[in-house]
Specification:
This protein has a domain of about 120 residues: Rossmann fold (3-Layer(aba) Sandwich), CATH 3.40.50. With about 425 residues, it is α/β, with parallel strands linked by helices. Helices cover about 35% and strands about 15% of the residues.
Length: about 425
Amino acid sequence: MVVKMRRSAKSASRRKKRVLLVVPDFPIPAKRRIMHNFAPIGLLKIGTYLRDARGCEVELVFGEKNPSINPDEVWITSLFTYWSEYVHRSARYYGALFPNARIRIGGIYASLMPDSVRKETGGDVHVGVYSAAERWCGRYGVDYSLLKEHVDFQILHGMRGCFRRCEFCGTWKIEPRETFDSNIPGKVSMNHVVFYDNNFLRNPHIREMLKDLSNIKVNDRHVVYESQSGFDGRILDQELAFLLKRARFVNPRIAWDNSYSDAYKIEKQIRFLTTAGYKPRDIYVFVLYNWDYDFNTLENKRLKCWEWGVQISDCRFRPLNQLYDSFNSRRRQTSANYYIHSNWKDEEVKQFRANVRKHNICARHKFRFHSTILEQMRLSKRRAKEFRVMPRSEVRRILSDAWFPDEFHGPSTPGSKFGNLSSENHPKSSIPQCSIA
């Protein structure tokens, strides 16, 4: 009886460890902070594990706030290295607010540049995936209620790591070993599932998994799936494309990272998807710019994508050790503001970005051309129809900003909003057309 009383007294005197989880105030609009393409899934897993497996009291906040708990530890996540200052700011704020709390920092920036994080924050750094939380949540699931907002999607990982060694990507450095989950269908619990896999199709169980996913219903409704990082087109084949479509995967994405000469390969991948039933305008092609291939090459890639009728997810390259990015599309800038590759110029970076946005509007809505002036007009259906069939020269006479997606648009193109940033000419390069071999 005495022993029992001592244990009881010891338990009563022991309080729960209090842990504050922090998402720094990254430059993401508030309404997009909890969306399927950005959610602090790493912190959610850690929070679920610390609370349910370790018995901690956990609170998650965004930015610099006054939390409801006085934490013993503050865990801060990080994203891209060029958003490092937001991480430093959060570490300084919570370090001053809770001087006795242990500051711990993890995530992408912390894993790629741990020495920088230690130097700037003085906090403890966790490199890579937090394995204990991964294992726990892989078995018991993630508690999204930590966000204190309604979430209508579920994030899953069918695999971690990547066997590719792309020099511009940090995934394989953060997660050097591939691991696969064969029981993904058994973990689906919501009607919208987003896979955060680095290489979804690489899973050795992929074909059976897709067949199982296609049959799952939640609340008597079929589940819709999406792969945030897209599909490795070098693995994609016609059977997999049919299985993806049958399983209700939406917004399929493939990547065109390398030279223009790969166009026939990309066209073949798109053909797999369209044959399976995807509409070209619902297909996205990741295109890396501000990198080794110059503006002319990238603009010709865009023209090829227009020929195929697909949209573009443009990815502006920044080195993996870049600690700042003050890119502003409305101003003339230099490499002191953001990273500009030696093959690119500031006006070219901004021109390509603008071209892609207009391209996507035209592709999505089947517009023949883009015009901001026309968007501001209130046209009757009859007048709008006239513009759709009007000769190009007449459209240009009426709408000075008419932008046709099937034309090459460089900074020196007449009417370009970036034409006044440089006096140099950038004529269309003579890259040959390609076809399926």
